[in-house]
Amino acid sequence: MPDCGFAPRLPACGTGGRVDSETVWDIETDILVVGSGAGALTAAVTAADHHARVLVIEKSAQFGGTSATSGGAVWIPASRQAAAAGAADTPEEGFAYIKALTGDAVEDERIWAYVRQGPAMLDFLERATSLKFVAIPYTDYHAELPGGKLGYRTHDCNPIHASALGADFDTLRPTHPSAMLFGVIPWTMYESAPMITQAPGWQKILAKVIWRYVSDVKQRLRGSRSRFLVFGNALMGRLKLALDAKGGKLLLDTGLVSLVRQDGRVVGAVASQNGRKVRIAARRHSGLRWLRAERYVAGGLSAGADQPGLERVAAEQYRRWPGGGAGGRGCHGFAGGSLVGAGDKGRRRAARAAAVL
C-alpha cells in the first residue's frame, strides 16, 4: 500500500459497510474522490485549493478515464472566453437549448446551476491550474433547436508536452486513435478543422503536424505515442499537475468496493488494491460543506442501487463504455457524478457543486 501522506498505515480491518467502535481506518483524508476523469479531478483540485486533504482513487492502472481518451472539449454557454471571441450568448439561451434537448428528464434547477456557474468554473480552473481555455467555432449538435448556437460554446484547452508530466505520462490513459491523424498523430482543434475540410492552406498544416510527430526522434525510437498532448490528454495532464501542486494524492489500481456509513451518512469507503481491502475515512471539511465526502462522492453510483431510472441507465452506459467500468463487474460511477444516499436535497446540492466544479 503506497504511503498517501495522510495518516499512518493501520492494521487491516473488515469490509463491513458500517462504522462501529472497533472500526480501524487504513487511510484518513478530508475528501475522497472516486474516479479520475475530468469531473473527478476538477472536484479534487477544487477541494485541495480550499486546503482540504484530498485522495483520489482510480480502479484501473491509468488515470483520466474517458475524459483522457476523448476530445476533452468543455461545453459551457455564455463564457468569458466566448465573449472575448466576439460571440453573443446568454445563460437564458443556454438554458433554452439544454431544456429543448432534455425535456423533463433534468430538473430546471440543475440546468440553471450549470449554465450560470459553468463560466465561473472555467475562470476558476484558469486561476487554479495551468489550463487556458479558448472558445472555438464548433457548432452545437442541434443548433436548430431553441437557444442553439453555431459556435463558441465548446472550449478547447492548451496543449502540454509530456515532459512536464514526468512519470505521470506513462499512467495517463492515451487519446483514442479516432481522435488522431492516422490514428497516432495528435492535432489541435485549429489544425484538424482545415485539414478535414481541406480549407486553403491545409497542406502546410498537414506537413507541420506530421513533422512535429516524426521529428521527435527520441520518442519515435521508444514507440508510436506522441509527447505532444492535446484534447483530453492535455486537460487531464494539467488537472493532475494542479492536484499534485496542491498536495492531493492519486492511487491507481484502487477500486471502490463499498461505502461506509455512520448514522445514515457516508463517512468513508472500502477499496480494493492488489487484492487487499483498504478502509478509507473521509473526514468532514468545514470549508466545503456542500462538497464534503458524506454528501458528494464523484462518480458514486452503484449499478445495483435503487436509483432513479435515468441514473440507472447512465450507470449501465458507463459499464459498457470503453475504458469505463474496467476491472470489475459492478459499476460505482458514471460521467457527471451522482450522490449516494443523499436524498433529494443532497442531489440538489450536488447539482450546484457539479456546476461550480
Characteristics:
12 strands; 357 residues; 36% helix; 15% strand; four-stranded mixed β-sheet; FAD/NAD(P)-binding domain
Describe the structure.
The structure is a single chain. The chain is α/β, with parallel strands linked by helices and 357 residues long. The chain has a domain at 27-61 and 252-356: FAD/NAD(P)-binding domain, CATH 3.50.50. The chain is 36% helix and 15% strand. The protein has a four-stranded mixed β-sheet, with no helix packed on it. It has a three-stranded parallel β-sheet with strand order 2-3-9, covered by helices on one side. A hairpin with a 2-residue loop joins β11 (265-273) and β12. The radius of gyration is 21 Å and the shape is globular. The two termini are 30 Å apart. The model is unreliable at 7-16 and 285-357 (pLDDT under 50).
Task: Set out the fold topology.
Blueprint (H helix, E strand, L loop, with lengths): L26 E3 L1 E4 L3 H12 L4 E4 L7 H5 L4 E2 L4 H5 L6 H12 L5 H21 L4 E4 L17 E4 L2 E2 L6 H4 L17 H9 L4 H13 L2 H6 L5 E2 L1 H15 L3 E3 L2 E9 L2 E9 L2 E7 L26 H12 L22 H14 L1
Parallel strand pairs: 1-12, 2-3, 3-9
Antiparallel strand pairs: 4-6, 5-6, 7-8, 10-11, 11-12
